[in-house]
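Morning F.,

Quick status update on the modeling queue. The single chain you submitted on Monday has been processed. Sequence for confirmation:
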Amino acid sequence: MPAHEEDQGEDLVRTYLRQMSRVPLLTREGEVAIAKRIERGELRITKAMSRSLLVSRYLPELARKVDEGERTLRDVVVLPDSELTDRQLNNRIKRLVGDAQKVTDALKELSKRQAKAEAVRKSRRKPSVRTRWRIMRCQIEISHAVRAIKFTPVVRKELVEIIETAAKSLQRAQRRVERLTKQSAPRRKGQRAMASPSLKEARRELAELRQTIEEPADELNAIQKSIRRGMLEGDHARKELTEANLRLVVSVAKKYVNRGLAFLDLIQEGNIGLMRAVDKFDYRRGFKFSTYATWWIRQAITRAIADQARTIRIPVHMIETLNKLNRAMQTLTRDLGREPTPQELAERADLPMAVVRKARKIAQTVVSLDAPIGDSDESQFGDFIEDRQAVNPAEATVAFDLRRQTESVLETLSPKERGSFGCVSD
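Structure tokens below.
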């Protein structure tokens, strides 16, 4: 790396560390308070989504796709990090299908109760308290059934987009009707308002949209606002918890310097692991966030080194073996005052000799033929590698001169003399 690029990288590191040091550290109580804010935001989003009939109607379709193999269960619901057996997966799928069936049955019951209440209203009577209570009870059952399913962030994003798309479509249709209504208003006092064909078409589209969505616009807007409020609350809390633990990323990244990635790249990969830890953290288990996040940060950094540090990727399990051998080599070099032999390394690291030989062979540095030589990009490393299949200019010159001299000498001999040397003229 050129000197000016190294200086620029050091300046960026200093700037980053300076900004990071301005954020105060969190106590255990502070971490719990932020985690509760994240949980409160998630709960607000979940409650809002569970009130939407759009989500309730989409759930059976989602369960069908999982049951028929169009989508994986891990893509739809949150599962343990450990691998599940086929029997456990099938039981989870059956549970999801059963929950979806409960929602479907409750939706049918709700539709029947609402139709009965609407018929009473058309007869200019007020629905009975019992009817209204049953409608409310169906809505609560649907909400609880939807809330019981822990959707993954991907599916939750899909559900939020469904709600937002429907809300925006309704708002757009309502604004169009309002605009055309104003345009059709009488311009003079006493003049009768005339609905234009465009206004009639806009009203028809709005009515069809309301019938398709089957959810009042006010309720849909309230759900959308509640979701946005929950997302904002959760995002602010996640940002606060992440920024307060950036020092932890730097301390872990320092242990992986000179492994093939620049320090800033290590910090960036560690920050990705930190954000993953923020999403997974459960304060109820009693341990500090830093204890939990360290594993995720280390995992992200080691994975990045394995994937990006070398031209030829080394498997993650072999990276751990190399780290173990490096630690053993440093200890033996310090104790013996010399470089240890492969046999000594194998004994110290408690590894078979075959594994040590394979690891040391893999550990050799791979240099790209396109790597630049010097500060300029004019010459590359491949330009200085000998091509053993190419003709050597010196040898070619000697062979050409030898042939020319031999032919010159043979020309002084008679045909009979040339024949005695095996040179027969054509």
